[in-house]
Design a protein that fits this description.
Blueprint (H helix, E strand, L loop, with lengths): L6 H16 L4 H26 L5 E4 L10 E4 L1 H21 L10 H17 L3 H19 L5 H32 L4 H7 L8 H18 L8 H8 L2 H6 L3 H15 L13 H21 L3 H20 L4 H31 L16 H16 L5 H12 L6 H31 L15 H18 L1 H15 L3 H8 L7
Antiparallel strand pairs: 1-2
């Protein structure tokens, strides 16, 4: 049964190659295969989620090589959760893109599949060198998607994105080299055993490597002061690509959670909770900067980009508390913010497609096709992302506030979360007012320009917003399940035993 573990990586890898070789000139065939694959990927992810829900940790040892010497894939509750989130967002984005948007450049569908492969691999790998490999797959595929359709601004933003991530990749190799030099391993479970045994004379090298890794993951997660690449990249990316990129920053957050709880957690000796003093202030500053950017944004795309930065700040500041309760709240907010940001980017693209030269800029323009319906979708997404009741953003913030009450910096948490929530509300109200309400009063274009639009993009956006509604309605059971995820994270013995006991390959 554990052969299921490799499917989220194998399926998109094989389909991506098949699409390049056999279907690159047939857009209909590419769409059929891509949508079927995305649907199957979601089904597989749900099966893996059900498997992980019993609390066991499952291991797949490639080539029957025994850990820590061989490559292993590891499925626990957290990995399964991220697989389902990736598959859900990926299916929604793909449904949006296949209405003609995917014809604007070559190889969209293969690149999309390789992107999903890299994401799933990053969430399943049990070894930091292979995490680096999947990061590089993500970088290559995301750059191709970033420049999809061409354009000077898009290429410029893409180059900045690649250069930043190449620097991050170089630091990644240096960091894992330092850690390997003193521990002799990069297997996550084995590292958890070796870190407490590192002698005092090697602690400087170990902790330098760990801090460099935090820097690398901070780049991926757009953490201040390493956030500078994200606003230009996401705002200039094609709408569906930016929506898929909403999960990309979460790869950085996932990596931070995995490394600094498992290997540098309570049992790490002198290196215990190494990330906390750096992560907490950086997260709070990121929250402030992101929500201030929402207020100052000049377009809906910029607004969504800064909302992603702000949400990452809240997420990582909560993670930095490093308690099970705070981790559970952070994971609830991770689910909410990913779906909310994805929907917001797609709505910004819908607006840009209908406003001619005005695009998605926060300026008044004549009414456009389906303006009232899109305004309603924007209103729902803005309420969710800003954290207003009754949607899941409000519940997520309540959980975060409750989880940090006993923390020494609780006053800072409460003050900054409430203040930045106000900034977000004002920013989204300003954007919606300019694009929808004030523009509605202007003279409408001739009826011929108000033509009907395909329904599938609305289905895709509605599906992501329905996910937020479901997260709200099922908040109690979801939060209870996330408590189990957090409890498993903070009791790493089961993870370590499952990985290092996998001597027989697939068990």
């Amino acid at each position: 049964m554990n052969h299921w573990l490799i499917l989220p990586i194998l399926m998109p890898a094989i389909l991506g190659a098949v699409l390049v070789i056999a279907a690159r000139h047939d857009i209909v065939l590419s769409r059929v295969f891509s949508v079927l694959s995305a649907g199957l990927l979601l089904a597989v992810a749900l099966v893996l989620l059900a498997m992980a829900s019993d609390g066991s940790v499952r291991v797949y040892a490639l080539g029957n090589w025994v850990a820590p010497f061989g490559i292993v894939l590891v499925l626990d509750r957290l990995a399964a959760l991220m697989l389902v989130l990736t598959a859900t967002l990926g299916l929604g984005v793909l449904l949006y893109a296949i209405n003609g948007w995917d014809e604007r450049g070559k190889h969209f569908h293969p690149l999309f599949q390789f992107q999903l492969m890299g994401l799933n691999g990053a969430f399943l790998t049990g070894d930091f060198f292979n995490l680096f490999v999947f990061f590089e797959i993500l970088l290559i595929a995301s750059y191709g998607l970033m420049v999809h359709g061409g354009g000077g601004l898009r290429v410029k933003a893409g180059v900045q994105y690649v250069v930043t991530n190449l620097v991050g990749s170089s630091l990644f190799l240096i960091a894992v080299g330092l850690i390997y030099s003193v521990t002799g391993t990069l297997n996550m479970a084995d590292l958890a055993l070796k870190v407490p045994q590192v002698p005092a004379g090697d602690q400087a090298l170990l902790q330098t490597g760990a801090v460099l890794l935090l820097l690398v993951f901070g780049v991926k997660a757009a953490l201040v002061p390493l956030h500078f690449w994200l606003p230009g990249t996401y705002a200039n990316a094609p709408g569906p690509v930016a929506a898929l990129f909403a999960i990309m920053t979460k790869v950085g957050a996932y990596s931070i959670i995995r490394l600094y709880v498992l290997a540098f957690g309570a049992d790490a000796g002198d290196a215990a909770w190494l990330a906390a003093p750096w992560l907490l202030p950086a997260g709070l500053l990121t929250l402030v900067l992101g929500m201030t950017g929402v207020l100052a944004a000049r377009s809906l795309g910029q607004m969504a980009s800064f909302a992603v930065i702000g949400s990452m700040g809240m997420l990582l500041a909560t993670v930095a508390v490093f308690t099970p309760q705070a981790m559970s709240a952070a994971l609830f907010y991770l689910l909410h913010s990913t779906l909310g940001a994805g929907a917001l980017f797609l709505i910004a693209d819908m607006v840009a497609e209908r406003r001619g030269m005005h695009r998605d800029r926060l300026t008044q323009a004549p009414r456009f096709a389906q303006g009232a319906l899109i305004a309603g979708l924007f209103f729902a997404a803005a309420i969710a992302v800003a954290g207003m009741p009754p949607l899941s953003g409000f519940l997520g913030k309540l959980l975060v506030l409750d989880s940090v009450r006993s923390h020494p910096q609780a006053a800072w948490f409460w003050t900054l979360i409430l203040a930045t929530s106000l900034l977000a509300v004002v920013g989204f109200a300003r954007g919606g007012s300019l694009v929808f309400w004030k523009s509605h009063a202007l003279e409408a274009p001739p009826p011929a320009t108000l033509r009907a639009a395909p329904a599938l993009p609305f289905v895709a956006v509605g599906g992501l917003l329905a996910g937020l509604v479901a997260l709200t309605v099922l908040a109690g059971p979801v939060h209870a399940w996330l408590d189990l995820v957090a409890a498993q994270l903070f009791a790493p013995a089961g993870y370590i035993e499952a990985v290092l006991g996998a001597a027989g390959g697939v068990r």
